[in-house]
Specification:
heterodimer; A: mainly alpha; two-stranded antiparallel sheet; two-stranded antiparallel ribbon; 5 strands; B: alpha+beta; Immunoglobulin-like; 6-stranded mixed β-sheet; 7 helices; 40% strand
C-alpha cells in the first residue's frame, strides 16, 4: 500500500514504514534507548530527504517518549529540578542547532554535517560501550570481582553556582548540567535524535546522578527539547511530515512493547555488547558512504540556495 | 447568432494557416494526488484534421511531450577533501522541469531536425536552461547533464521512442506514465506533427496536477500556519503514541 507523504513529497510503502518503526521500536524496547539515532539514518536509506527525516524524527521522539515519562512520573523517578536545568541548556542548544542547520543547508553541506555527526558520535559511543561491556562480561565470569569504584570528587565539584538537587541527592554546580543540556540540544536539532545515548552516560559518569532517576529525567528533558526542535523545524524549514511521523510511531510503539519483553529475558551484559555492535555497524555504514567514491558525484538541491 | 458566427470564424483563422491540425483527447485532464497516490497513466489520443488530401512526401510523425512545472535547481558536485567526499562546486540551473516525458512515433532524430528542436525546445537537453552557470567552474555543462541523469534514474525524465501509434497518418495515441513522486502544478502537454523533420503543426493543453483532500490540507497548513501545524503535529503524535501504548498495555493485562 503506497502512501504519498504530503511534506516529503515522496510516495513510500506504508508497510515498509510500519516495519521500520516496529524494528527500531523492538530494538529501543530491548536496549532502553530512544532509537532516533537508528531511525534517522534508516529514513535516509529509504529516500526521505535528510531535512525531513531529521525534523520528523524529532516529532516522533516527543511522542514515543511521552508514555515513558508518564510511567517514570508515576514511579517518582524524575528529578524535576535537574530536569529544568538540563532543559534550559537544551532549549538554548536546540535553537543554536537549528541556526547551524539552516546555515549549512544554505551552503549545501547539511547532509555532510548530519552524517559526520553520526559517524563521530556513534563511533565514540559504540566503541566505549563495546569496551565497557566486554570488560563487564569478563568480570562477571570471574567470580567475586569487586565493582569498580566511582570517583567521589572531581573538578566538577570545584565549579561555582552550586545548587542542591534533592531527588538525586546531589550538591553540585549548575554549569555542568547546563552544558550537558546545551550539547544534547544542539545534537537533537542537527541529528534528529533525542540524545539519550549521550545524556545518560553524561549524567551517570559526569554528574554522578543515581541510575534510577537518570532515565526518567533524561526523558523529561528530551520531550521538551525535541518538541521545541520540532516547532523550530516546522516554522523555519516546513519539513515536519506528520503523516510519516504517525506511521513510524504506530509501528514503533508496538515494537517497543515487544522489545521490552525480549529485553527482560536476555542478560544485561550481552544485551549491551549487542547494542554496541549495532551502533558500530550503523556508524561504519555511514562512514563508508563518506569515504568511498559515490556512484553519483552530483546531487540536486531544491530551490535557489546560495 | 452573429456573434457565434464571428467567434467561429476567429477559431477557423489559425486553421486556415496550418494545413493539418490536431484534434486532441485526454483520458484525464486532472491528476489528483491523494494519500494513496502511486503514479498515474494518462492516455493521450487524437486525430489530424485536414481540409486537403494527405500531402505526398515523407509520412506524418507525431511527438507528444508532457512537461512539469519548471523550477530552479541547485546542482552540487562532490569532491574528495581530507579523505571524505564533500559538496564543493554548485551551479544554479535556472529552469529545469520537474517532470519531462517525450513520446515519439519514430526515432527522435529522424523526425525532428536540430533547428526545429532548438526552436520548440522539444528534447530534454533543450528544455533545461542554465544561463547563470559561473564561468570559473569547469565543465558547467556537466551539471546540466547531471540533472538529466539523476532525474532519468528517478523516472522523472524519459524519452520513449516509437511509443506513439499513428494510423493512416490521421489517428494517433500514446500513454504517458507519471511516477508517484510528482510535484504539483500545471503540466503542459504538447503535441507536434512533423513531416521530414519540420514541425507542421503543434497543439498545447494543460493537465492539472494537484494534491487533494488531506494532502492538500496538510501541505497548505504547513506553509501558511506553520506554528499551528507544528503544534498539531505534536498533539497528533503524542495522542497516537500514548493511545497505542495504552491500548497495548490493556491488551497485555487482559
Amino acid at each position: 500500500m503506497q502512501i504519498y507523504l504530503p511534506i516529503a513529497e515522496v510516495s513510500v510503502n506504508a508497510f515498509l514504514l510500519f516495519g521500520l518503526g516496529g524494528m527500531v521500536g523492538i530494538l529501543s524496547g530491548m536496549f532502553g534507548v530512544g532509537g532516533g539515532f537508528l531511525m534517522t539514518p534508516l529514513l535516509f536509506f529509504i529516500g526521505i530527504p535528510p531535512a525531513v527525516a531529521v525534523a520528523t524524527e524529532a516529532n516522533q521522539i516527543v511522542a514515543s517518549s511521552f508514555s515513558g515519562v508518564l510511567a517514570h512520573f508515576r514511579r517518582k523517578t524524575v528529578d524535576l529540578k535537574m530536569g529544568f536545568v538540563l532543559l534550559i541548556g537544551g532549549l538554548t542548544g536546540a535553537a543554536l542547532g537549528v541556526i547551524i542547520f539552516n546555515y549549512l543547508k544554505s551552503l549545501g553541506q547539511v547532509d555532510l554535517l548530519v552524517k559526520l555527526c553520526y559517524v563521530v558520535f556513534l563511533g565514540i559511543i559504540g566503541s566505549l560501550m563495546f569496551i565497557e561491556s566486554v570488560n563487564a562480561l569478563r568480570r562477571s565470569r570471574k567470580a567475586g570481582a569487586t565493582p569498580p569504584k566511582r570517583r567521589q570528587r572531581s573538578w566538577i565539584h570545584a565549579l561555582p553556582f552550586k545548587m542542591r538537587f534533592r531527588t538525586s541527592g546531589l550538591y553540585i554546580s549548575v554549569i555542568p548540567p547546563l552544558f550537558v543540556g546545551l550539547f544534547v540540544g544542539i545534537l537533537s536539532a542537527i541529528m534528529g535524535v533525542g540524545g539519550g545515548f549521550i545524556m545518560v552516560p553524561a549524567m551517570i559518569y559526569l554528574l554522578g546522578m543515581p541510575t534510577k532517576v537518570v532515565v526518567g529525567t533524561s526523558l523529561f528533558q528530551i520531550i521538551f527539547v525535541t518538541a521545541f526542535t520540532t516547532m523550530l523545524h516546522a516554522t523555519t524549514n516546513y519539513t515536519v511530515d506528520v503523516v510519516l511521523a504517525v506511521l513510524l510511531l504506530v509501528g514503533g510503539v508496538v515494537g517497543a512493547q515487544i522489545g521490552t519483553v525480549i529485553g527482560a529475558r536476555m542478560p544485561a551484559e550481552q544485551l549491551r555488547v549487542l547494542l554496541a555492535a549495532l551502533v558500530l555497524v550503523v556508524c561504519g555504514k555511514l562512514g563508508l558512504d563518506l569515504l568511498l567514491e559515490p556512484a553519483e558525484l552530483f546531487s540536486l538541491g531544491d530551490e535557489g540556495g546560495h | 447568432m452573429l456573434r457565434w458566427i464571428a467567434a467561429l470564424c476567429l477559431l477557423c483563422l489559425p486553421a486556415a494557416a496550418a494545413e493539418e491540425q490536431v484534434v486532441l483527447g485526454l483520458s484525464q485532464d486532472r491528476v489528483s494526488i491523494t494519500a494513496n497516490f502511486d503514479g498515474s497513466e494518462i492516455l493521450i489520443f487524437g486525430a489530424v484534421k485536414r481540409e486537403a488530401p494527405i500531402p505526398p512526401g515523407p509520412p506524418l510523425e507525431v511527438i507528444v511531450s508532457v512537461v512539469g512545472p519548471s523550477e530552479p535547481v541547485t546542482v552540487r558536485r562532490k569532491e574528495r577533501k581530507l579523505g571524505i567526499w564533500v559538496n564543493t562546486d554548485s551551479v544554479l540551473v535556472d529552469s529545469a522541469p520537474s517532470f519531462y516525458a517525450v513520446a515519439t512515433s519514430a526515432p527522435f532524430n529522424d523526425i525532428l531536425t536540430d533547428t526545429e528542436d532548438l526552436r520548440y525546445r522539444v528534447s530534454i537537453e533543450r528544455a533545461i536552461r542554465s544561463v547563470g552557470a559561473a564561468m570559473h567552474i569547469r565543465g558547467a555543462q556537466e551539471f546540466a547533464d547531471a540533472v538529466i541523469r539523476i532525474r532519468e534514474a528517478e523516472d522523472l525524465y524519459s524519452i520513449r521512442e516509437n511509443t506513439v501509434a499513428v494510423d493512416e497518418q490521421t489517428l494517433f495515441r500514446t500513454s504517458i506514465e507519471m511516477p508517484a513522486d510528482l510535484t504539483e502544478g500545471d503540466y503542459l502537454a504538447r503535441i507536434f506533427l512533423t513531416r521530414g523533420g519540420e514541425v507542421v503543426s503543434q497543439f498545447e493543453t494543460v493537465i492539472d496536477v494537484r494534491k487533494v483532500g488531506l494532502e492538500r490540507f496538510l501541505y497548505n497548513m504547513s506553509r501558511e500556519q506553520p506554528i499551528w501545524y507544528g503544534l498539531m503535529s505534536l498533539a497528533i503524535a503524542i495522542a497516537a503514541g500514548w493511545g497505542a501504548s495504552t491500548a497495548f498495555r490493556l491488551l497485555r493485562e487482559k
